[in-house]
Design brief:
Elements lengths: L3 H9 L4 E8 L4 E8 L27 H6 L1
Antiparallel strand pairs: 1-2
């Protein structure tokens, strides 16, 4: 699979945000949850992402059967 989540998290760090990424179902769908790194008054709120393709590079997430065969 692609390395987009790592790259995007590095870019989002300056916004006090990181992606929490989970693959669900068959075929796979990405449930992307975000969370604040630092909390408290005046801190930026986390910005909110279910996709069957990587939302960053467009690579298709494989079905579980395809992942096992790869």
């Amino acid at each position: 699979m692609c390395e987009c989540i790592t790259t995007v998290n590095a870019d989002l760090k300056q916004h006090n945000t990181m992606l929490v990424f989970t693959l669900l179902g068959n075929p796979s769908r990405a449930l992307v949850d975000t969370m604040q790194i630092e909390t408290g008054r005046g801190k930026k709120k986390a910005v909110p992402v279910v996709a069957s393709y990587c939302p960053f590079c467009g690579e298709r997430y494989q079905a579980k059967a395809e992942q096992a065969a790869a």
